Amino acid sequence: MKRTVIALSSPRSNLLSVILVLLSMLENYRYRFAIAGGGSGGIAIAAKLAKKYGKGKVVIIEPSSTHYYQPLFTLVGGGLADLPECTNATDSLIPPGCTLLKDEVKEFQPKQNCLVTGDGHQVHYEYLVMATGIALNYDKVEGLTEALEYSDNVCTNYSPEYVRNTYYYMKNMTKGNALFTFPTPPIKCAGAPQKIMYLADAHWRNEGVRDNINIQYYTALGVLFGVKKFADALNQICDERNLTRNYQRNLVKIDHVKKIATFEDLSSENRKREDSPYDFIHVTPPMGPQEAVKDSELADSNGYVDVDKHTLQHVRYPNVFGIGDCTNTPNGKTVAAVAAQLRALYKNLKASVAGTPLKPKYDGYAACPLVTGNSKLILAEFDYDNQPLETFPFDQSEERYSMYLMKKYFLPPLYWKSLLKGTWLGPKEVRKGFQAVKRQVEKVA
Fold first, then answer.
1. Domain FAD/NAD(P)-binding spans what residues (predicted)?
2. Staple partner for 422: which of 47, 66, 250, 362, CB 3.0–4.6 Å?
């Protein structure tokens, strides 16, 4: 932000200088489209809007200088990739024709078609796209922040600040109890808490110490995975590899000095607490809406942006739309979901601008590439009804090396070079192509 410095020489000039400084802080901006958030969804939709409506019409409000491709964090934590592979400067990713306002949104004023930033700027808009993401709430687990900072066996793959520790602590583990946790949902990438368990299991087997390590998975859910077809396959893997599952157990406290994790039993009436000693623990932190969203008129009762789950249009403010983790759409919160949402969001925004009915519908598509070993992956794809929505013409509940290669080598460049440029709208057309070929083969047969 441009700062104004005025010399002070008298009481009158003092007052004038204060007024001028305040006015400069309250500088107003006006754009046709304001994008709150510069993550994957925000940058992708900004790229499409700028290309369609021209230069100077789109502003992205995002405070972070660094942009991360978070799906690769699992491989970083597992020692199969490094953090720089997930990292780019935010400035370098801003689409041509868009303006980046490096600031955070402090207040949304949808009745005035305005938002206010942390530096006091007012951004007025005709259309607003909410793409603020989801917050990591480490403080919701007593002792977790201190444990991540000061212990040598508490880790999480969900933060670039801590993700490298996971592999380092994993290498130092030779015996004892290894715990992996899943909090009460919603969380982003719901498969990640167990992916790192499979990678840790593979690492310890390769090191010849697996027989000395007791692996326990604690999940607040009542199932291992929400889609039965893939849950069945994952449960079979856990049985074969002696990975113990503890359901409806939510982590509430960590004592990193005594090395004890405390869980609530969500199945009991009084939510009784149980202590579990650990020598290694990977924690998935609780997550929730950003404060500015939760405190706004755009939020539902749980604090998420209140949109129609098919059109992604706000249910009360028709010039407001949402994409990604910040909305209350009941889909898996993944990058794949963002790509599929982008298709519907862009068409619906164009329809809204043109004054025509909103027709395209988002079906809840999400994908979770479940890494189950150093070179194995189950590609789970599903919709709002938790029904499989598979792209490839084979059983995707089976572990495959080809799918692992896709995650590690194909999906990252697809993200950087296509999704963020607004050109990757999910695998819907690919799926249609495979289905057409399959029908032709069956007809010939």
1. 32-147
2. 47
